[in-house]
């Protein structure tokens, strides 16, 4: 049975910001390394943040052998390796390909798929979008035309709990709630359609097709939906029809959505963790919230248990990554909030034991930790634009709003959400910081950040 109303629409990238782009998409990838002050940088797309145990080991070893021994988690649940040598691209590519991490070299940068990380694990949500993510990824990699998408074009798949809808997807799928299991909603550029859940991955592909057709018509080099001119609108209805997908238009006006959450912040070297301040199941206008650190209760499709942790400042050592390797046929899911979910534990005791191990490795396992939600960009020495070593200067203050330390005004990787929902700390040329615009000496950061995180 179809639901009467669509869920809260996602924050749709702003329309009307048409601008001509005359350069190609320079977004880094695993095969297109980006030069940085600390060596080459590789960004590896992981649809739904998914890694198997074998892939964890390959990635950890690559970081040790070819990079600086660390693995960054990005705001899309992807990973970055830094400090790579000039000539290691071919070897890195071969290692990743052998591990199944590059199923199609031509598509390696377009596999931008974020999905509710706890889907299928805790009994919440109306559909297991992790399964959609796998199917959508396979569809993307199987078609030549999809390689024309930019490395920034984002698919967001929400299982109905509203945790990822605010992340600014170009194409957003939302599983309908328990009252309408079997339905899903598809959003693109202010349009919304109700579809059968079984059609969801194919419908997302059709939406991407509609965008590319519109982008070609616009001729302005748009990488994202919000970059299309106002008078060019993707014909989603036609794309769905051509794909043979039954769809019903719903609430198009409502689906225009909020103004926040452009989701464009997966900049080179970005890294932050957002404190999950919103309860699971709350549709978010902001960037939402991932699962709180701890054991995720039984209730999933296989009746097994999982654990969730946060990654301090979004960077893992190779040892920490190995500690996250799933066992018992489970999987590792990196989250858009720089966290990780490990699945597959047979009982609560086994999950609790792993959580203790992860705490011993320095990962955040306490849901009340003041370090939850503390993020920082790359800063010095990795970024040539940085005015400070923001990772060294970052302080937790006190648990509360997310806080993001930036080495310059670009604010790479800042939390997705409107102003006022996170604390902005930016380095200045005189060695101090601006905390929400207020000049603050480095020695006063702890107090200033604590106040800013807790008094709004
Ligand atoms: S210093 Fe500036 S450009 Fe460099 S990573 Fe930080 S915010 Fe981005």
UniProtKB/TrEMBL annotation:
Segments of skewed composition (Gly residues): 284-296
Region listing for Disordered, in residue ranges: 1-22, 277-296
Keyword Heme appears in the UniProt entry: yes
Keyword rRNA processing found: no
Matching InterPro entries: NIR_SIR_4Fe-4S (IPR051329), NiRdtase/SiRdtase_haem-b_fer (IPR005117), Nit/Sulf_reduc_fer-like_dom_sf (IPR036136), NO2/SO3_Rdtase_4Fe4S_sf (IPR045854)
Source organism, top-level taxon: Bacteria
Biased composition (Pro residues): 1-12
Record key words, sorted: 4Fe-4S, Heme, Iron, Iron-sulfur, Metal-binding, Oxidoreductase
Residue ranges constituting the Nitrite/Sulfite reductase ferredoxin-like domain according to the UniProt record: 38-86, 299-347
Protein name: Cobalamin biosynthesis protein CobG
